[in-house]
Amino acid sequence: MRVLVVGGGGREHALCWALKRDTPDADLFAAPGNPGTAQLGKNLDIEAVEVGEVLEAVKQHRIDLTIVGPEAPLAAGLADRLRAAGHAVFGPSQAAARIESSKAFAKDVMQQARIPTAASRSFTALDQALAYIKRHAEPLVVKASGLAGGKGAVVCNTRDEAARAAHAMLAEGVLGDAGREVLVEDFLAGEELSVLALTDGERLLLLPAAQDHKRLGEGDTGPNTGGMGAYCPVSMATDSLLETIRRRVLEPVLQELAARGAPYQGVLYAGIMLAPDGTPYVLEFNCRFGDPETQALLPVLPGVTAHLRDIALGTWTPRDPILSATRAAVATVLAAPGYPDKPRLGAAVDVPRDLEPGTLVFHAGTSRDPDGTLRVAGGRVLTVTGLGETVAAAREQSTRGCELIGFEGKTYRRDIAWREGRRTAKRAGAA
Fold this sequence. Notes:
The chain has helices spanning 10-22, 51-60, 71-75, 78-84, 94-101, 103-113, 126-134, 159-170, 239-259, 293-297, 305-313, 391-404, 418-430; strands at residues 2-7, 27-32, 42-43, 65-68, 89-90, 120-123, 140-144, 153-156, 182-186, 191-199, 204-206, 211-212, 215-217, 221-224, 229-232, 266-274, 280-286, 328-335, 348-349, 359-363, 366-368, 374-376, 380-388. The protein is α+β, with helices and mostly antiparallel strands.
C-alpha cells in the first residue's frame, strides 16, 4: 500500500511512525514532511495547503490512501478534491471541517444540537464587542473564530484584559483573518480533557482520553501555546464518562452536521471541560488529530491505523465502542527559546542515538543541512514520548529523554501529567 500523510509536524511524524509499525511493508510519503518522516519514507516538497499540488502528487505517486494531518488543508477543501477525483482519503470535507475553522459555526451547531458549552456571543465590530465585554462577568474568554494555530483563545481575568484581546484581534489584526470575528464567552472552571473519536459519519470509535498542557510554564503558568505536552490514559476519564461524552456530545454533533448536509468522516476531536458536577462542556471541536495528543495516543494503540484505512475505503466495521491503551504514555514538547511569541531558530540539535528503549522522538520544527546537521526550524522542535506501565513511569522516561537531547535554549516542562500524579497521590492517601 502507498500512503501519503499530509503535513510536516510532530503529529504527522507520529502518524507515519504508527503506519510503519502497523504495516511495515507500506510505502510512505509525506508532504512536506520533516527530517523524522524522511527516515520512514519519502518527503515531497509540497506545502500541505497547496491542494492542487497534493492532488497531482497523489496521481503521480499512485497513492492508495491519503491521511490529512493539519486543519488548514481540510478547511481549504483538500479531502473534497481527492474524493471527487476518486482517491481514498481520511479526513472531513471542507463543509464538515467548519466545526474547527469557524468557532462561530461550531457554537451554532452546538446550540442547535443542545450540546453543553459556554454561553457566548460573536462579533465582527469592535465597538459592539467592547460594549458586551464591559458588562460581562469576570473572568471571561475571548476567542478568534478562525484558525489560529492553537493560539486564538485568551483567558482573561478582567474585562480590561478582554478588551485588549478583542482590540488586538479586531483592530490590530494580530491573528490576521482568523481574528476578523471573535467570540466572547463565559469562563468555565474544571479540568480539561481531549477526547478523540474515529468516525465514518454514523459510527464512532472513541480513543482513550488524553490531557493536553497548553501553558508554557510548569504548574500551568505563562502564555498559551500550541501545546507543551500530553499524556494518556487519564484515570478520571472512565468508560462511563466517555460514554456520556459519546451520547451528549459526539453523536449529537454528527447528527447535526449530517442534517446540514455536511456528514463528517475522519477523526473528531472534542476539547472538554469537565465541570465539578461532572458535566462535560465542549470548549472546542477540532477536525483532526491533536498535537501533541497524537504523539501520546498512537504509540499505545497498536493497529489503530487500520481503522483510518478502512474508514477512508468505506469498509469500516468497528467491533468495540472504545479503544484501550496498552500502556501509559507521556509526550513532552521541546520548544525553541522565545516560544511562543518569537522563537529563535537555527541552533544545532543533538539527538543521541542510544536513547533508552521506550523513548520515542517525533520531529516537528526541525530541518537538516546538506551536511546532515539537524537544526531548530520552528517553535515546537521535538516531542519526546516516554512509555511505561504507569503514567509516572512514562513521565520519568520522557523527562530523561528530554535531558539527553541538546540544543541552545531548549525549553520544556518537567511536570507533564502533574494532575494525574496528584490524583494518584490522593488515592494512595485514601487507601
